[in-house]
# Entry
Amino acid sequence: MAQESGFVNYIPQNFNKEESLNRSEAFFNFLNQRRSIRAFSNQPVAKEVISNIIKTASTAPSGAHKQPWTFCAVSTPKIKSEIRKAAEKEEYENYHGRMSDDWLKDLEKFDTNHIKPFIEIAPWLIIVFKQSYGIKYGEKDLHYYVNESVGLACGVLLTAIHNAGLVALTHTPGPLNFLTEILNRPKNEKPFLLIPVGYPEKDVKVPNLKRKELSEVAVWFE
# Structure
């Protein structure tokens, strides 16, 4: 990656107050429709769409602009099958001993278990890896605020997926180390999230959940 130097002019959007208000409300209403989906269609999604989604995620801010992330996009059935087998093995352990009773009770409303067919059904898996450090000219390159940076990129990734008319699930069958081996990633990369991406299954249903009100998530100091 070429190292840029110096500064360039920032070009602001220049919306007036009314435009800003309307756009902020419209964007909230759009994103408020986003849901995590566990039942995917096998309808294909073009590689170009996934490429644009990953490029969008890479616009996220990062510590010292190190961009400490790698997005592995998997559509190969054999690899997806290997990932599902390994993920279900870990999830079985989670549901049968690792998770506390409170955790399992909180999951009841999602009607989920250790069986994860969506890993093979969804046309794409995007596996996000965090780079603990970089490699530059054969030497270790320090990265800063790695978890925060990769978390921000994942948020942008999910927004871009929704914007493309697709659905996703943030799947974390911890521990995720099996992904490093299956995808043959270098030792400076650690798996962060496994995200199936595609279209929802026809007539799919989601839990009847309610998001917290603004008064529950915001504190104002005016």
Observations:
- The helical segments are 17-31, 47-57, 77-98, 101-107, 118-121, 146-163, 177-182, 214-217.
